[in-house]
Design a protein that fits this description.
The chain is α/β, with parallel strands linked by helices. The protein is built from 3 helices and 7 strands; from the N terminus they run ββαβββαβαβ.
Length: about 140
């Protein structure tokens, strides 16, 4: 595209792509930094096996119960009576379901207590992680 300057000379208009490239790189960095990755806690847990295991949703609240019966949510230890309020808060923040990751040596009473607290918090889908769970 040609422009005519006030003194009568023609000048060719150019588009500078540098700002566009800068914006694209800034957007790329923004999306890389804000991406979340699901990572399991570093607990020594031997998961039970199940033939009917299915992958879990990435938007699950993960509750960990180790062999001693200690409960963890968001990598922080939680008392059993606090599970309900923590899970309710995380469900309101956009989580879809609750996944309980337990050790094979966890007493059934502790597992039932954790699942019950999650359901009382309003979770409609509560599952137990097994060896074949890949989500």
């Amino acid at each position: 595209m040609r422009r005519i300057r006030p003194d009568g000379q023609e000048e060719e208009a150019r588009i500078d792509l540098s700002p566009l490239i800068d914006v694209v790189f800034i957007l790329l960095i923004f999306f890389i930094v804000t991406t979340t990755f699901v990572k399991d806690m570093d607990l020594e847990i031997q998961r039970p096996s199940a033939a009917s295991a299915t992958p879990s949703s990435a938007k699950s609240v993960r509750i960990y119960v180790d062999a001693d019966g200690n409960v963890y949510i968001d990598q922080q230890p939680v008392r059993p009576w606090m599970i309900q309020s923590k899970v309710r808060t995380l469900l309101h923040e956009g989580a879809e379901s609750v996944l309980v990751v337990t050790d094979t040596h966890v007493p059934a009473g502790r597992l039932v207590e954790v699942v019950d607290q999650a359901r009382l918090a309003g979770a409609k889908n509560v599952g137990v992680a097994t060896e074949q769970e890949s989500g």
